[in-house]
């Protein structure tokens, strides 16, 4: 059972480039989430989705976009990468508001 | 005021002692509370959830909730070096949003 799978694990981007962070879960969870974690800090919610076709903003959505076309996948897109987006990104999923299961994270550096 | 506050530490505890981690929250409507453990460079891992006032025990871990004081704590008995990690307190805001504290870094000294 793979759980929550995030790709890539590491990425270096140049300022202004774009990329998509992939997240997939095989647990048939309806809720999915994207967080970022800056060094020495807790996790901040970027976007979340309560089901296919439904997304909503979290605490820090600026500079990011998401889509949820299937139950399994919840990609996060950075359109114009900025140094402030250097962080570790975690995807999570849950059944309704039950405890969330996290992926292994994507370490992103913007130079 | 931050929504969920934790002392960032580091908290140093000798091996075999009790480690006590504390968390306060600002939303009186919060009903669900979670403790996650995060090893350096790894993802958060759920270790305890608590929904009602009082204590909840699971092995060496005890979570305590006091809604009147808006206070959640985690006790780790017989602390082991493998317990050294950052512990994140989180509360569910509404039905979907998990709000995290900044985490407390715990070090167990052999």
Describe, in short, the structure shown.
Chain A has 111 residues and is mostly beta strands. Chain A has strands at 4-7, 10-13, 19-25, 31-37, 43-51, 54-57, 64-66, 76-78, 87-94, 101-102, 106-110.
Count the beta strands of chain B.
11
Beta strand % of chain A? over 45%
Poorly predicted ranges of chain A (pLDDT <50, ≥5 residues)?
Answer: none
Share in helix of chain A: under 10%
Largest interface: A-B, 23 and 22 residues
Rg of Cα set of chain A: 13 Å
Helix content of chain B: under 10%
Oligomer: heterodimer
> Major sheet of chain A: size, sense and barrel closure?
7 strands, mixed
Write down the secondary-structure element order of chain A.
Answer: EEEEEEEEEEE
Description:
- The complex is a heterodimer of chains A (111) and B (110).
- In chain A, the strands form 2 sheets. In chain A, strands 2, 4, 5, 6, 9, 10 and 11 form a 7-stranded mixed sheet that branches. A 4-stranded antiparallel sheet of chain A has the order 1-3-8-7, with no helix packed on it.
- By secondary structure, chain A is mainly β.
- Chain A starts with a strand and ends with a strand.
- Chain A has strands at residues 4-7, 10-13, 19-25, 31-37, 43-51, 54-57, 64-66, 76-78, 87-94, 101-102, 106-110.
- Helix content of chain A is 0%, strand content 50%.
- In chain A, 34% of the residues are buried.
- Chain B has 110 residues and is mainly β.
- Chain B is built from no helices and 11 strands.
- Chain B has strands spanning 4-6, 11-14, 19-25, 33-38, 45-50, 54-58, 61-66, 71-76, 85-93, 97-100, 104-109.
- In chain B, a hairpin with a 4-residue loop joins strand 7 (61-66) and strand 8.
- Classes of the chains: A mainly beta (111), B mainly beta (110).
- Chains A and B meet through strand 5 and strand 10 of A and strand 5 and strand 10 of B.
């Amino acid at each position: 059972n793979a759980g929550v799978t995030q790709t890539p694990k590491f990425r270096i981007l140049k300022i202004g480039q774009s990329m998509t962070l992939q997240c997939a879960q095989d647990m048939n969870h309806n809720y999915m989430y994207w967080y970022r974690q800056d060094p020495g800090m807790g996790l901040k919610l970027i976007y979340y989705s309560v089901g296919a076709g439904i997304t909503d903003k979290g605490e820090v959505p600026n500079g990011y976009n998401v889509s949820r076309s299937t139950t399994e996948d919840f990609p996060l897109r950075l359109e114009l990468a900025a140094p402030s987006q250097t962080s570790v990104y975690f995807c999570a999923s849950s059944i309704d508001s039950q405890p969330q299961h996290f992926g292994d994270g994507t370490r992103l550096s913007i130079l | 005021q931050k929504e969920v506050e934790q002392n960032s530490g580091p908290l140093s505890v000798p091996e075999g002692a009790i480690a006590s981690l504390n968390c306060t929250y600002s939303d009186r409507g919060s009903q669900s509370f979670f403790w996650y453990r995060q090893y350096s460079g790894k993802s958060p891992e759920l270790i305890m959830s608590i929904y009602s006032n009082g204590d909840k025990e699971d092995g060496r871990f005890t979570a305590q909730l006091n809604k009147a004081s808006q206070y959640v704590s985690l006790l780790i008995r017989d602390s082991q070096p493998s317990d050294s990690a950052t512990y994140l307190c989180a509360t569910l805001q509404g039905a979907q949003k998990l709000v995290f504290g900044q985490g407390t870094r715990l070090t167990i000294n052999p």
